[in-house]
């Protein structure tokens, strides 16, 4: 390439650059980019809402599957749901069950039980509460008990499968 061609090409690039900068306006941004960013923010918000809804539906599905599995196991073992309810008598509320367990652990409150803290002094009462709710309220699935205690259902499963100390 010759010098004149390079100079002409350089002037052309400068002219194109000037047109692009002028079309961006005072904001320094192209209107199309601003519009796309607004659409992106809206889509991100919708996506987050859908993700929360999906998580809720997955929890409900896990709860329903656990209930179905428990009912199927009762049917296979020859027991009916009505027989199980009669054997349990009246169903205590979760608050009553937890209050009865926490009576053995002075200084520990419901807020401590559902907190994220993992202090040694809270582990035994938390596990005792989970086990008591599991044993006295057979109508509740593991995922449901987990949600009550702000834990995963696998944590509840590990607690109830662990031998009583």
From TrEMBL:
Which keywords, in A-to-Z order, does the entry hold? Answer: Coiled coil
User: Which is one Pfam family of this protein?
Assistant: Bac_DnaA_C
Protein name according to UniProt: Chromosomal replication initiator DnaA
BP GO annotations = DNA replication initiation; regulation of DNA replication
From the UniProt record, list the coiled-coil ranges: 33-74
Q: What is the lineage of its organism?
A: Bacteria, Pseudomonadati, Pseudomonadota, Alphaproteobacteria, Hyphomicrobiales
Q: Which Gene3D superfamilies match?
A: 1.10.1750.10
| Keyword Thylakoid on entry | no
The record, for SMART domains, names: Bac_DnaA_C (SM00760)
What is a GO molecular function of this protein? sequence-specific DNA binding
- Where the record annotates domain Chromosomal replication initiator DnaA C-terminal, the positions are 93-163
| Lineage top rank: taxon | Bacteria
């Amino acid at each position: 390439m010759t010098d004149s061609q390079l100079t002409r090409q350089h002037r052309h690039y400068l002219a194109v650059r000037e047109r692009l900068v002028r079309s961006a306006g005072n904001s320094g941004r192209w209107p199309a980019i601003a519009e796309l960013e607004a659409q992106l923010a809206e889509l991100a918000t919708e996506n987050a809402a859908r993700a929360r809804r999906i998580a809720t539906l997955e929890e409900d599905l896990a709860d329903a599957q656990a209930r179905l599995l428990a009912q199927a196991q009762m049917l296979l073992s020859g027991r009916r749901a009505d027989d199980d309810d009669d054997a349990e008598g009246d169903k205590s509320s979760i608050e009553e069950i937890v209050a009865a367990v926490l009576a053995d652990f002075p200084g520990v409150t419901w807020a401590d039980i559902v907190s994220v803290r993992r202090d040694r002094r809270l582990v035994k009462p938390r596990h005792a509460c989970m086990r008591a709710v599991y044993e006295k309220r057979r109508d509740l699935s593991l995922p449901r008990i987990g949600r009550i205690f702000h834990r995963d259902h696998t944590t509840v499963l590990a607690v109830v499968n662990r031998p009583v100390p």
